[in-house]
Amino acid sequence: MGTPICDFILRYKESNAVRMHMPGHKGVPLLGPEALDITEIAGADSLYEADGIIAESERRTAALFGTKMTLYSTEGSSQCIRAMLALLHFYSQKKKTKGYILAARNAHKTFVTAAGLLDLDVRFLSPTENASLLYAPIDLMALEEILRSKPPIALYITSPDYLGNIAPIEALSSLCHKYGVLLAVDNAHGAYLKFLTPSRHPMDLGADLCCDSAHKTLPALTGAAYLHLGARLPDFLLDAAKETMALFGSTSPSYLILQSLDLLTEILKKDFSESLSAFLDVAEAFKMRIAAHGFALMGDEPLKLTVLPKAFGYTGNDLAAHLRENGIECEFSDEDSLVLMLSPYIDASALEKTADALCALPRLAPIDTRPPRPHIPRRAASVREAMLAPSECLPLEKCLGRTLSSLSVGCPPAVPPVVCGEVIDEEVIGILQYYGITECRVMI
Predict the structure, then answer these.
(1) CATH number listed for the domain at residues 273-359
(2) 103-155 per-position pLDDT tens digit
(3) Which superfamily, per CATH, for 383-443?
(4) What does 207-253 look like in DSSP terms, one character per residue?
(5) Cis amide linkage into residue 23, ω under 30° from 0
(6) Is the pLDDT at 411 greater than 50, yes or no?
(7) Which of 58, 173, 274, 431 has a Cα-to-Cα distance from 218 of 20 to 30 A?
């Protein structure tokens, strides 16, 4: 098997060595996997100075994904997002230009906080007419006008988004490269897209930098992720990549997660594509049964089912509560949507149970309320200034006209109603009220 990390740690476990090193459990199976949980002992390599088994494993994974370089993260795509932005900052410095990053506004909160820590100039694309807090399609004509008039260092997008919509990566990469702009993609929810036929992975469609959460849609432990770097990037960025990951990573990366990433490459090389292909028909039949019952669906991502239930008389939170009563836990819900994440590893009986529960609901009178359309408020301070400024937490009704200090949006990649440094106006107040946010942290 091509699993250098797993092989080394298994040999170490079987050697019964006296563990005069961290961790403190000393291999005693209090939870279960402790015997395989080690630290950077002799021969175990070191994640951010890798030249042994970790480096070999990462090379195997890069070959699988067809990238110039793929690096492991044991701290999810959040670490990779921070590293991508730091590399773009370094790129700008090497080009001796104070460039900016153009971003679709439905970015993970990590993007905003990382931009603040790095003091980056981020400019958001204006939401289109059909945008919501979880859906921010890009107008290609408007984008080209921006790229032509004042090109950024890079375009940063999130695809797939949290509702399962996949951006036109190929068109975006072609447009970016036409104007000498790098394309960076938060593909946290789409690692499996590589194994579709044909591949729909951003790196195969022209992205220059990309992060994948291996644990979201592939069978890896939580926290397992990849940073992919493409062939178009200059060598100085490739050379700086490990050091940049270390800038944001723990000095004690989890070897359990590293083993998971190591073994995952072998699993993916064997028969995952075939298993995925066979499951897609099952997933489509599952979706069609839900649609046939009368629920509206959204998104073109194969392994995500997003229900828009208001026309059927329910909120997404109503559906989530109903599923929970039937022993089924969803990925996400709000007033407008319900998100379920699928996988070839889910049992067919579980899909049937879920479909039975949803299809048992009768149609009710439609709910007419619509989510408010986001806009981009006036900026009064940089993200960094706002994040690090003295602040106070106030009830929402007292925040009108104040400048946001800390993000008022949850973890999913979403369009923040207001970003650190922006002024809370009446439209923002209305959006926050709609989503049940009752207080904000604002600059003093």
Answers:
(1) 3.90.1150.10
(2) 998 889 899 999 999 999 999 998 777 777 778 889 999 999 999 999 999 99
(3) Molybdopterin biosynthesis moea protein, domain 2 (3.90.105.10)
(4) -SEEEEEHHHHSS--TT-EEEEE-TTS-HHHHHHHHHHHHHHS-SS-
(5) yes
(6) no
(7) 173
Regarding beta strands 304-308 and 338-341, do their DSSP bridges make them parallel or antiparallel, or are they unpaired?
A: antiparallel
Question: How does 315-334 read in b/e, with b if 16+ C-beta sit within 10 Å?
Answer: bbbbbbebbeeeebebbbbb
Longest Cα–Cα distance of the chain, Å, equals 68
Q: What is the C-alpha to C-alpha distance for residues 20 and 175, in angstroms, rounded to an integer? A: 56
Architecture field, domain 4-267: 3-Layer(aba) Sandwich (3.40)
All structural domains of the chain with their residue ranges: 4-267, 273-359, 383-443
Between CA 156 and CA 108 the distance in angstroms is 11
CB count within 10 Å of CB 411 equals 11
One-letter identity of residue 394: L
What are the pLDDT digits (tens) for 168-177? 999 999 999 9
- Cα–Cα distance for residue pair 154/141, rounded to 1 Å: 17
